[in-house]
Automatic annotation (TrEMBL):
InterPro entries for this protein: DUF1684 (IPR012467)
Lineage summary: Bacteria, Bacillati, Actinomycetota, Actinomycetes, Mycobacteriales
Protein name (database record): DUF1684 domain-containing protein
Length: 268
């Protein structure tokens, strides 16, 4: 029976891991990013992009000619196009031939992220390094909800940016002889963690890893499967704007489970 359970556990983890890798192979995903250009209130040409781009009154303006082959909402831009991306949301899409120019708003600033299916990082992707799955890293914890949800503000991998997260409560769990208490984001029915630990910056990405926890039971019990601790996009590219872990979630213990740093030994 134990052997069967172990095999099933490893198989389910391998399926999850393969889905993670397949998601990253999306030609318009984070591995396809080739640039991140911040916009100002001065009309400017952006490196290797057609058109002129700037921000006025919290709106992004683009001027282009038909020969620039810029398209928004299925219509070619000929003259001036105004678009208004939402704070913290997925960007609005401007197409340029095979590329997607994603216009985003982060902490009141506006930028254009370039997604290119021909990106070298996408072509070179050989998978996500990870610790071998180990059932010892499936840990039971206890969720304690806040009386009311709280907003927790964290920094980002890009200096000056901020992320605002809705925190539902805390989760307490024990690793060896160490008891940790972390802030859980989301809702009691769909909890998630953003954390660092003693492996961060050594074998795992230093900014944060995320862990989907799922729902708390009626008595507050939650299951933390650290084998599924996942990298944020910023672990794979310099053109992401991901959050870093809040101070409360910087664990003292080493979580030797889940995804490892995909760019160890490279210049970040």
């Amino acid at each position: 029976m134990t052997s069967t359970l172990t095999t099933t556990f490893a198989t389910e983890w391998a399926r999850w891991h393969a889905e993670r890798e397949q998601h990253l192979r999306d030609p318009f995903g984070f591995l396809g990013l080739t640039a991140l250009h911040w916009l100002t209130d001065q009309p400017a040409r952006l490196p290797e992009l057609p058109g002129t781009w700037w921000v006025t009154d919290n709106k992004v303006f683009i001027t282009a000619q038909p020969a620039d082959r810029l398209e928004y909402d299925g219509i070619g831009i000929a003259g001036v196009q105004i678009i208004t991306p939402a704070e913290g949301a997925p960007g609005l899409t401007v197409r340029n031939d095979k590329r997607v120019l994603e216009v985003i708003q982060r902490t009141g600033k506006y930028a254009v992220r370039v997604h290119d299916p021909a990106a070298p990082t996408l072509a070179a992707f050989a998978g996500i390094p990870a610790y071998e799955p180990n059932q010892d890293w499936v840990i039971t914890g206890r969720f304690t909800p806040f009386d009311e949800p709280k907003t927790i503000t964290t920094g980002a991998v890009i200096e000056g940016l901020r992320h605002h997260h809705t925190a539902a409560g805390t989760i307490e769990f024990t690793v060896g002889e160490v008891t940790e208490r972390v802030v859980a984001f989301g809702t009691p029915g769909a909890l998630r963690l953003l954390f660092t630990d003693a492996t961060s910056g050594v074998t795992t990405y230093p900014g944060a890893r995320s862990l989907a926890v799922g729902a708390a039971s009626d008595d507050g019990t939650v299951v933390l499967d650290f084998n599924r601790a996942a990298n944020l996009p910023a672990a794979f590219t310099d053109y992401a704007t991901c959050p870093v872990a809040p101070e409360e979630n910087r664990l003292r213990v080493a979580i030797e489970a889940g995804e490892q740093h995909p760019r160890l030994g490279t210049t970040l």
